[in-house]
């Protein structure tokens, strides 16, 4: 059977929507025992999805959002169906219910499995197109210190010829201090979740350091690009004494992230949300300190000018 036969003609003209529908078709195939015919259909689906990702009109971020929305809707419908079946089974005679339980115990476990990261055709280790192949939840692991490390796929798109976080960081550091040096180290040792840190040694001030504490990547190259993004964002919006500045440290540096691949633009957005929360907290504390100083000065002036009034 051709996978395209189940897709609406209007959706077939939209590569993003068609990609989502093919992904859902795969989910349906993987939720039951796979026959030889299914294996061939899965192969066709895989080839079609890879071609769709090359389409000029394909939107990776929109595909991610649409798939999750459809997956949640289908899962909710399946859950409601199970609940209705369970309620119906409770209302049936006991002998029939026992027969139903026996049938379930004889059904292969693979037929009751739900799609997951372990059996996803889009998790291809040979393909490094990043988020397109990791639409399911990011896995995690516990390190030797008992800290949960979230594993994120930060692979650059295939044949990417544009800017990378490490390149942008290098350019920004040179603008700030032409004699500064940047170094990267892997700190995850033998863990499969690769983590890195970066150190910038400045000529006339203390060095700066950033580390990946509770997040890891699939390989060392991804980890270095990830930590470079963190350093780039921190240097673009540095902490200052007093009120937190909302403007970037240098002209144009706050828009440079737009040159990055989508997965790193998403990371930048996450860092921006955290920065705004941090700046708001800093500004609130600064306002509180100023108010305390002002109240103290006003009270002192009143004591000097009207000593009797304050003793009444």
What does this structure look like?
By secondary structure, the chain is mainly alpha-helical. It folds into two domains: 3-128, no CATH class; 140-275, no CATH class. 52% of the residues lie in helices and 9% in strands. It has helices at residues 9-12, 15-30, 36-53, 60-91, 94-106, 165-176, 220-236, 262-305, 307-311, and strands at 140-142, 148-152, 181-186, 196-201, 208-211, 215-217. A three-stranded mixed sheet has the order 1-2-6. A three-stranded antiparallel sheet has the order 3-4-5, covered by helices on one side. Mean pLDDT is 75; it is low at 107-137.
Could you provide a short overview of the structure?
By secondary structure, this protein is mainly α. The protein has helices spanning 9-12, 15-30, 36-53, 60-91, 94-106, 165-176, 220-236, 262-305, 307-311, and strands at residues 140-142, 148-152, 181-186, 196-201, 208-211, 215-217.
């Amino acid at each position: 059977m051709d996978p395209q036969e189940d897709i609406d003609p209007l959706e077939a003209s939209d590569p993003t929507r068609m990609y989502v529908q093919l992904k859902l078709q795969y989910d349906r195939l993987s939720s039951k025992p796979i026959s030889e015919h299914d294996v061939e259909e899965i192969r066709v689906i895989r080839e079609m999805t890879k071609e769709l990702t090359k389409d000029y009109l394909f939107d990776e971020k929109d595909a991610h959002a649409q798939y999750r929305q459809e997956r949640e809707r289908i899962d909710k419908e399946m859950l409601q169906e199970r609940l209705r079946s369970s309620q119906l089974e409770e209302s049936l005679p006991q002998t029939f219910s026992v027969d139903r339980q026996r049938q379930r115990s004889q059904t292969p476990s693979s037929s009751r499995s739900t799609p997951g990261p372990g059996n996803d055709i889009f998790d291809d280790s040979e393909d490094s197109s990043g988020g397109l192949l990791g639409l399911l939840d990011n896995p995690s692991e516990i390190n030797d210190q008992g800290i949960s490390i979230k594993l994120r796929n930060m692979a650059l798109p295939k044949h990417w010829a544009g800017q990378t976080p490490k390149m942008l960081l290098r350019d920004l550091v040179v603008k700030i201090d032409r004699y500064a040096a940047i170094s990267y180290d892997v700190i995850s040792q033998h863990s499969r979740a690769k983590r890195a840190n970066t150190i910038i040694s400045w000529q006339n001030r203390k060095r700066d350091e950033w580390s990946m504490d509770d997040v890891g990547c699939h390989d060392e190259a991804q980890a270095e690009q990830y930590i470079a993004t963190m350093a780039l964002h921190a240097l673009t919006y540095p902490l200052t004494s007093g009120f937190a500045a909302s403007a970037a440290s240098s002209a144009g540096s706050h828009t440079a992230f737009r040159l990055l691949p989508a997965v790193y633009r998403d990371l930048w957005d996450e860092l921006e949300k955290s920065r705004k929360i941090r700046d708001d907290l800093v500004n609130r504390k600064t306002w509180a300190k100023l108010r305390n100083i002002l109240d103290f000065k006003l009270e002192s002036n009143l004591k000097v000018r009207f000593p009797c009034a304050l003793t009444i």
